[in-house]
Amino acid sequence: MASVLTLDNVNVDKKTVLVRVDINCPLHPVNKSFLDLSRIRAIVPTLNRLTSAKVVLLAHQSRPGKKDFTSTLGHSRELGRLLGRSVKWVDDLYGEKAMNAIEKLECGEILMLNNVRMYDEEINTKGDFNVHSETRLVQNLASVADVFVYDAFACAHRSTPSGVGFTHLIPCVAGELMKNEIVKLDLALDDPARPCIAVLGGIKVDDSILVADNMLRNDICDELWPTGGVANLLLELSGFKIGAVNHDFLVNEIGKNWHHTVETAKSLLSDFSDKIHLPVDVAANIEDNRVDLSVSELPIDAPLFDIGIQSIRNLSAAIKSAGTIHLNGPAGVFEVPDFAFGTIEMLNACAESKGYVVVGGGHTATLIAKHGLAHKMGHLSTGGGACLDYIAGKSLPAVASLEASAEAFTMNIARSVDQ
Q1: Span 71-93, pLDDT tens digits
Q2: What is the pTM of this model?
Q3: What is the number of H-type helices and E-type strands within the chain?
Q4: What is the CA radius of gyration of the chain?
Q5: What pLDDT does 366 receive?
Q6: To bridge 356 with a disulfide, which of 67, 265, 378, 380 should be the other Cys (CB 3.0-4.6 Å)?
Q7: At what angle do helices 341-352 and 309-320 cross, to 10 degrees?
Q8: 314 and 193 in contact (C-beta within 8 Å)?
Q9: 149 - beta bridge partners?
Q10: DSSP state letter for 223
Q11: Measured between alpha carbons, how far is residue 157 from residues 5, 10, 78, 122, 389 in Å?
């Protein structure tokens, strides 16, 4: 595990504890009701460790400009229902109302502050830990807190004041969710049961190519099974003409990272051709109908929405015989019923596999929860982009912050917290 402090290393009894969580939830587009409480449930273990402390929650919901950008009032109510006790809320983040509410907290009480992304500093501050620490948000909250707990793995790949600004000001430790993410991901990365396969799909093609590069070059995985947009790109670079509509979609999705992504993908195909298993057939959307065809029949003037039937069989067999499976991204456009087959069969194979299955967050995690398969997976990550970055070998700002804080406070942690 990364060299970070956890709740086991600090005394929180009667202390004021700031907890950064990610409880960003899907909301109904009309009435804003909560459609999935998974992320709120995920922070309960950490809160159960803080019952003798004064707890202040920092959270966000969506971002400015989006329809689901709201206050965190509803989140406080839903959390209260899950905990079976009241969760206070204040329409403020670091101003007078927030400071007064924090001052009035009693041990065992929880206060949720308003959406951190409603404040310019959280959105617009750029720079290192020190720059973030100089914001009013951090300075004000650090002045009334004894400990900072980071429990927001899903946004651990973002550098923001509420995430990394407290690094050198107060002891920063990993919450239960954050600790579990690091332990479970490291287990599958450092010493995976063999054979280890990576099944990478979805539309975050540039991220997935970096993951594949890290996993193949560092001998983390033995085989790569691309699906979705990742498969379409690798098919094209292998000489198959995927059609203008599919090529243009990839160019638009990958954007400014197109050249680097293509060069990295070409290098992978050159260096690891024996380990990369491309689809042998695909499913095209022709006038809203699923049409399966062999890759030898390409190109076709229609969007490719799924891998084909034989490719699904091949992938399912590989999953069931693997010791470790890294799964990230759907196999196709699962929102359209005719093209959900590849994704559903892929998830069913993971559920039936005796191997250790690690699933990235995002749409894949939502689908698994919807089909009641979560308990059959080894680890269902709460993070999409964060999980991808972590298994791609990138340094996550939140993890770097925790490591830096551990180094700064380990020698005098008792004095810093117990005084």
Answers
A1: 999 999 999 999 999 999 999 99
A2: 0.88
A3: 19, 14
A4: 23
A5: 76
A6: 378
A7: 20
A8: no
A9: 19, 173
A10: E
A11: 19, 25, 26, 14, 7
Cβ of 410: how many Cβ atoms within 10 Å? 13
Q: Which amino acid is at 127?
A: G
pLDDT over threshold 80, residue 32: yes
Burial class (CB in 10 A: 0-12, 13-18, 19+), 28: exposed
Angle between helices 244-254 and 258-271 (to 10 degrees): 110
Helix (H, G, I), strand (E, B) or coil at 247: helix
Q: Which domains does the chain have, with CATH numbers?
A: 7-178+396-418 (3.40.50.1260), 194-354 (3.40.50.1260)
3-state secondary structure 174-188: ECHHHHHHHHHHHHH
3-class DSSP state of 134: coil
Residue in the structure block whose two tokens are 């117990």: 418
Q: By C-alpha distance, which of 65, 93, 171 is closest to 404?
A: 171
The strand order across the sheet containing 16-21 reads 88-89, 110-112, 54-58, 16-21, 147-151, 172-174
Q: How far is CA 145 from CA 12, 96, 160, 417, 418, in A?
A: 11, 15, 18, 10, 13
> CA-CA distances (angstroms) from residue 126 to 69, 131, 141, 206, 256?
22, 7, 19, 23, 21
Instruction: Write the DSSP assignment of 251-292 as a string of letters.
Output: HHHHGGGHHHHHHHHHHHHHH-TTTB---SEEEEEETTEEEE
